[in-house]
Design brief:
mainly alpha, 49% helix, disordered N terminus, oxidoreductase activity, oxidoreductase, UstYa-like
């Protein structure tokens, strides 16, 4: 849960900004390793923050929007989420 809060509250914002807007002018293997590091960081952030909570309608607008205030979030096992998604998908095709 702490990792989810870090990402949504901006505590990890510096690392995310670095990953998305890092020094793109570098060439060679050092730059390649840097890009791999950034993708691993973003992937791990998503995998560690599996959250199936639905957030309700923002009461301050008539638009289809949510502000997330008061929503209860709980991290889940990513493999359990993947398994559920595969078991409940509309088309029985694994994309292979």
């Amino acid at each position: 849960m702490d990792r989810y809060n870090d990402l949504t509250s901006g505590s990890a914002e510096g690392q995310q900004d670095h990953a998305l807007h890092g020094d793109h002018d570098r060439r060679g293997s050092k730059s390649h390793r840097h890009v791999e590091h950034c993708f691993r960081y973003l992937r791990q952030s998503l995998l560690c923050c599996g959250d199936t909570a639905l957030e309700g309608q923002d009461p301050n607008t008539d638009k289809a929007a949510t502000n997330g205030v008061g929503a209860v979030h709980m991290c889940k096992d990513f493999e359990a989420i993947r398994s559920w998604a595969e078991d409940n998908r509309l088309v029985d095709h694994k994309g292979e």
